[in-house]
Amino acid sequence: MMTQIKETPCPGWEDDCPHLALLIQDGERRQIMPLGKRFYSIGRDRTKDIRLVSEGVSGHHASLVWLDHCYVIHSDDATDGPSCQPLTINDNPVQTSPLRPGDAIGFCHGVRARLITVRSGVPVAPPLCLLPSPAHAIAPGASLLNHFPDLMLKFDANGSILDVKPSVDPDLSRLPIGAAGQSIVSCFESSFAAKLFSYGQMASRTQSLQCFETELTVEQQKIFCEARLLPTEQGHRIAIIRNVTERKRLELELRSGAIHDTLTSLPNRRFFMEKAAHAIALKRTSAAYSFAVLFIDLDDFKGVNDSLGHRVGDQLLVEIALQLKACLRPQDTVARLGGDEFAILLHEVASGEAAVAVATRIQQALALPLLRDHPEVCSSASIGIALRTESDDSVEAMLNHADMAMYRAKALGGSQYAVFDPAIDPA
């Protein structure tokens, strides 16, 4: 049973909050929006507290939260697609930032606002908080709920906590949540509180369950939480917050195993094919973009396995993977296709000479002894290079061309490169 409540002004609000307003320039429209609540949703959607009429603004573009004696603005990772431009404060891109009077906010091209102070005579109503009567304490949860691991909160539209079911999870139990009457912005970091406001507002408007997942910092420790927001009577919201850190860790491990080679930790064939497909799609839409594919096959790797054993062969593959990564830029991709075969995707290759320079650098790196316990082992590779042409309309075609060039390099004695030439290499 929830406790009795009464309407009172939010404690400290009148002292903390000056008379603030947003001066908004939205296309040809200019307006002043007085600020008097702890939370505002900002976006193109007409249901938002502050509506910005521009195609460059996403449905839920940003949030304003009153925290630590000032408004904090958050750029929202909206589910209806990213905004065309980042949120800026005084022309500096931000994700989260406190606001001071005079700060200029840029939402997108042609849509700006400035935080201003207004005359005390301008009516800006402070928000009302629903606080429990002092004579009543928070009613304990049902006996079954006492063993429920999730944190449960009931709060009003202004973020004032009305009821709490503490969590038995050791991480969530360290959150600074005490008696009713606290604001959620004093219990959670501002970005998490903004999401509770935003999704709670959506739950009340749609009268449906709303969910989100995000990181939360608890005593300098990062945990991953799932929050579920449910509407209830009088416009209140219930938040059920669960620690899903272990589940997210397992998901990341499974995803990493699906796209990475377990021996070398390089991306695998599946990952490489996806990246190369994206490069081909980008080339179709941008004539200025160029890329190249390198196919690498080690020379006489079977001899290492036969003479020194597969353990040493595996060690050599790991060292070669490290050398290949060291020869590339951060934006390039190297993957192990299988066995002793590797592939490289080079982005923004200005010419064939640039791809040849990478192949030469790889040859020089592999010519050095790579195994401390077996300095006599030196490796080399045959490298085929394929530059994207109009006829290469698939990843398979480009990889096949690089493969044919590699076989020509190997037929010439190995330890060298060859560039695919349709006049020489068989189709």
Can you tell me about this structure?
Mean pLDDT is 82; it is low at 1-15, 78-84 and 121-139. By secondary structure, the protein is an alpha+beta fold. The longest helix is centred in the middle third of the chain and has 17 residues, at 190-206. The chain has three domains: 18-117, Tumour Suppressor Smad4 (Sandwich); 128-248, 2-Layer Sandwich (Beta-Lactamase), CATH 3.30.450.20; 260-419, Reverse transcriptase/Diguanylate cyclase domain (Alpha-Beta Plaits, 2-Layer Sandwich). It contains nine helices and 23 strands. Helix 6 (301-308) runs antiparallel to helix 7. The strands form five sheets. A six-stranded antiparallel beta sheet has the order 3-2-12-11-8-9, with no helix packed on it. Strands 5-4-6-7-10 form a five-stranded mixed beta sheet, with helices on one face. The protein has a five-stranded antiparallel beta sheet with strand order 15-14-18-17-16. This is GGDEF domain-containing protein. InterPro entries: DGC-Regulatory_Protein (IPR052163), FHA_dom (IPR000253), GGDEF_dom (IPR000160), Nucleotide_cyclase (IPR029787), Rev_trsase/Diguanyl_cyclase (IPR043128), SMAD_FHA_dom_sf (IPR008984). It holds the Pfam family GGDEF. Residues 289-422 form the GGDEF domain.
| The CATH topology of the largest domain | Alpha-Beta Plaits
Helix content: 25-40%
Large-scale geometry: elongated
Q: Going across the biggest sheet, name each strand in turn.
A: 3-2-12-11-8-9
CATH superfamily of the largest domain: Reverse transcriptase/Diguanylate cyclase domain
End-to-end C-alpha gap: 77 Å
Return the domain count.
3
Protein name: GGDEF domain-containing protein
Domain GGDEF: 289-422
InterPro entries: DGC-Regulatory_Protein, FHA_dom, GGDEF_dom, Nucleotide_cyclase, Rev_trsase/Diguanyl_cyclase, SMAD_FHA_dom_sf
Pfam families: FHA (PF00498), GGDEF (PF00990)
